[in-house]
Amino acid sequence: MPEPDDRAEGAPETQMAKLVLALRSQGVTDPKVLAAIETTPRPLFTQELFRDRAYEDSALPIACGQTISQPFIVGLMSQALKIDRRDRVLEIGTGSGYQTAILSRLARLVYTVERYRTLMREAEARFKELGLTNVITRFGDGGDGWPEQAPFDRIMVTAAAPEEPKALLSQLKPSGILVAPIGKGPVQSLVRYTGDGKGGFHVEKLLDVRFVPLLDGVAKEL
Ligand code: SAH
């Protein structure tokens, strides 16, 4: 449990301003990314039970045993992707849809895949409520990417891939960028793959992260 002092307090605008300051001090400095975070109400994406903690810089539980990512990680991954306004972005692991909403404010089109039907439906309702018209959703196994819509300018994976995600890298444009947590254990490396334009990749390890695993197939439960 956080100490009372750590708990976000005050009006939503005050809490949001504090969150944005905290992210900036940790290295999320891209003004477009910060603006996207500032204009996306995180409480809409959390469960009722955790709504008063929505402006905390922490991951929180969502339905189906999954998590909404920590705002710092969302900011950092969005920044690492160096998204251009004209880009078509593929996201694997819609979850709450929070990261999707941020991407939708930075890119032209966002394609997002989720293996839980319930999470997909809830996220779709949120996109509708926010009037996000450039998000295209799919219920399915994102490990295979979205071949019919490839190639993508950018790809973001928000669940941990056990190793280099070859199928996804093959759906990236030659000079595209993919960011994904890579690793089999509870702690993974956030890795950025930047296409060299000739079929190869420049690979950078950005930091240690903790994501839920990327699982095969669609979930049997709702
Ligand atoms: N960006 C989300 C993170 C959700 S956690 C958010 O901030 O809310 C990761 C999500 O990836 C989970 O919802 C999980 O169900 C999903 N996932 C895991 N493996 C997947 C796969 N193979 N295809 C699609 N989604 C997957």
Please tell me about this protein's structure.
The structure is a single chain. The protein has 222 residues and is α/β, with parallel strands linked by helices. It has a single domain (6-209), classed as Vaccinia Virus protein VP39 (Rossmann fold), CATH 3.40.50.150. The protein is 27% helix and 24% strand. The chain contains 6 helices and 9 strands. Helix 4 links the parallel strand 3 (88-92) and strand 4 (109-114). The relative contact order is 0.13. The model has no long low-confidence stretch (mean pLDDT 95). The chain binds S-adenosyl-L-homocysteine.
Provide the helix percentage. Answer: 25-40%
Number of E-state strands = 9
Helix/strand class: alpha/beta
User: CATH superfamily membership, which one?
Assistant: Vaccinia Virus protein VP39
Strand order of the largest sheet: 5-4-3-6-7-8-9
Helix and strand sequence: HHEEHEHEHEEHEEE
What would you report as the Rg, rounded to the nearest angstrom? 16 Å
- Tell me, rounded to a whole number, the average pLDDT: 95
Bound molecules: S-adenosyl-L-homocysteine
Give unreliable regions as ranges.
none
Distance between the termini: 30 Å
